[in-house]
Amino acid sequence: MRAVGVVLVASLVAYHAEHPVNPEFATFGDALWWGIVTITTVGYGDIVPKTTTGRWAAVVIMVTGIAVLGVLAGSLAGFFRLGDNGNGSPAGEPAGPAATPNEAALATLTAEISALRLQVEFLTRRLTGTLPDQTSGEPPPGQDTAPTPGA
Prior knowledge:
Blueprint: H1 2-18, H2 28-39, H3 52-79, H4 103-128
Helix pairs in contact: 1-2, 1-3
């Protein structure tokens, strides 16, 4: 809401500074359009302040727009837990004792992915000829050893 206030006040300041000397700021609506375009960092360039006061109002709006984008990016990163492994410690650091109810599901998924990686590595070696065919009847690493139906 503060950003909206900044746009309104800065647009009003720019309107009062620019209206007498700049035909692009013919109405407050034009100034408000310019303020919205500026804070969103779109910057069409259809309306440009020419006075020092108008340009300072533009700088205030621009800095506010950059700050809003930074806060938005940080909020989204927090929402998606980017840079966090889910237990409050930064990414890359080991998780402490079970911190979330989904810890068991995560451990199961991690084990399954590890087993799949081993199977892919085994099959790749077999296909490239770096691993001789197995005649021992043992399954590749990570493969279930239970008999298949009908076998």
